[in-house]
UniProtKB/TrEMBL annotation:
A Pfam family that the UniProt record links to this protein: 7tm_4
Transmembrane segments: 28-51, 58-79, 99-121, 142-169, 197-225, 245-265, 277-294
PROSITE patterns: G_PROTEIN_RECEP_F1_2 (PS50262)
Organism phylogeny: Eukaryota, Metazoa, Chordata, Craniata, Vertebrata
Principal subcellular localization: membrane
Protein name per Swiss-Prot or TrEMBL: Olfactory receptor 52A5-like
Domain G-protein coupled receptors family 1 profile: start-end pairs: 42-291
Gene Ontology molecular function: any one: G protein-coupled receptor activity
GO cellular component annotations of the record: plasma membrane
């Protein structure tokens, strides 16, 4: 579409990601449908187990439950629309729907960073101050911690998305992406978008600050662990911390890959879209496996529920 007057602004966008694949584009329905079903099932099982088992109502398991909740809801924000687009070429999304989707995805990303920081803080007090753990990590302190950081996240993302609202999209309404990613939408605007990139930088800075705090916490934790005498408690602490670190590494490698993908011009645009999508999906895919296999208490309950379900189906 050609240039139009700046007094005109599109009210609908077309999400045309992966159209470079041409006739092969509909085949993407299969892997993404499998991913959607798997993430809903795996994370749903994790949520149910943690919610139903009273002995798992400890801070560490509640944080795992929150991670699972993100893994359950984030794919719902954009995969169903992708699947419809792949099969029936129904790629239209209204401006309001686009902004809501953008807010949900970016807020979820920030909230994931907050949960990972919460995991690091929980392990920090459990290992550095084991005798005073319950004084530091209790319901009141946990609620205050997450309330403050959630407000921080919300204000940052509201500002970021709010600055998109007044933009004029007069050149084109074609977004070469499969969901309303901030950079892809803002780059279509006819206005000065300096403030928009500043808001995005602030949001990225928040997750970077969380990452730095997480890194410092685990450096201190492992220094204390390796200075302590060998034994079962030391082995358990290492096992628990490495499980959390696996989750953290997966999350931050995904976001780094997506960030780099948009800033290296030689990377094909379909590859950029894929890294952006997997940034949201990889944690949702991997976390149930990590916690299901490496956390004994959760693994035991999963086996118990699966055996119960199999007996029920066979009866």
């Amino acid at each position: 579409m050609g240039d139009r007057s700046v007094n005109f602004s599109f009210t609908e966008f077309q999400l045309i990601g992966f159209t470079d694949l041409k006739a092969y584009r509909p085949l993407l329905f299969i892997p993404f449908c499998i991913i959607l079903v798997y993430t809903l099932f795996a994370n749903g099982i994790l949520i149910i187990i943690i919610a139903k088992e009273r002995k798992l109502h400890a801070p560490m398991y509640i944080l795992i439950g929150l991670i699972a909740a993100l893994g359950f809801f984030v794919p719902i924000y954009f995969i169903p629309r992708m699947l419809v687009g792949f099969l029936w070429e129904m790629n239209t999304i209204t401006r309001h729907e686009c902004l809501i989707q953008m807010f949900c995805l970016h807020f979820s990303a920030c909230f994931q960073s907050t949960i990972l920081l919460g995991m690091a803080v929980d392990r920090y007090f459990a290992i550095i101050y084991p005798l005073r753990y319950s004084d530091f990590v209790n319901l009141t302190n946990s609620l205050i911690f997450f309330a403050i950081l959630s407000i921080r996240n919300a204000l940052s993302i509201i500002a970021m998305v709010g600055l998109v609202v007044p933009l004029t999209f007069c050149r084109t309404n074609l977004i070469y992406h499969s969901f309303c990613e901030h950079t892809s939408v803002v780059n279509l605007a006819c206005n000065d978008i300096t403030k928009n990139y500043l808001a995005l930088t602030v949001a990225f800075g928040i997750t970077s600050a969380d990452c730095l705090l997480i890194f410092c916490s685990y450096v201190i934790i492992f220094v204390v662990i390796f200075r302590s005498p060998s034994g079962e408690s030391r082995h358990k602490a290492i096992h628990t911390c490495t499980t959390h670190i696996m989750t953290i590494v997966i999350a931050y490698i995904s976001v780094t890959a997506a960030f780099v993908g948009y800033r290296v011009a030689t990377i094909p645009r379909d590859a950029r879209i894929l890294t952006s999508i997997m940034y949201h999906l990889v944690p949702a895919i991997c976390n149930p496996v990590i916690y299901g296999l490496r956390t004994k208490e959760i693994r035991t309950q999963i086996v118990k529920y699966l055996l119960f379900c199999s007996c029920f189906l066979c009866s």
